[in-house]
# Entry
Amino acid sequence: MPRRASLVVPTLDEASSIGHVLRTFRRAADEANRTVFAAQPIDWELLVVDGGSTDGTGTLASAEGARVVVERRRGYGRAYKTGFAQATGEILATADGDATYPVEVIPALVQKLRDDRLDFISGDRMAYLDRRAMSTEHRIGNRALNLFLGVAYHRFLKELPQGGLADSQSGFWVFRREVLEHVHLGQDGMAFSEELKIEVLLRGLRVAEVPIHYGERWGRPKLSSWRDGYRNMLFLARKRLAVARETTRGAPIPFSHDPEAVSPP
# Structure
């Protein structure tokens, strides 16, 4: 069992929810340390990557015991790359700062990672989706992206127990730090979510997808369903061509060895 783990949370003006997210997780982590991990408790680092919030998100996160890293370079993927480079845990877990993801189940997923000898776990938001949690446009976009990924990457997805990914866009992950020694992460935008999942499959890592409850967002939505969906679809097509070229060019530089990817904020 790892002795230290990190929860990485990217934020931008999440003052209304960040405290709730961190407190909910901390209660679950403390309870797990008293019970299932009592023999070897996990020291959890709370790492919030603040994208230049103007509503006091960073101050509130610090008050909850989080280490706050300010990353003014924009982008969902950029925030995660900065967070991964700064995190000190042997296990990394992720969640958004808007209270949509069930952070209280992360300790159980760490146990699953250990017991099932997995490298990477991704949450499937579609399993118990509440219609209030995701707009119609967002649901349509997710289905289209899942379908395209299933067709274009079929040979890599077939090794999964369920034969494919049910939610290619999920940002709820628990994984071993060693994963970063194998995957190439070049995306700074929303396509980072699908890039990470594709990479762990390409590199032959042990992957599982688990159903999760996905809640209604606290605060104003920041996604543009059609714009971000188009960019993600374009990325999937370009990535598939890049994968085909790896047979002659070789695999790209892994995240942990890429100076540009891990550059400080």
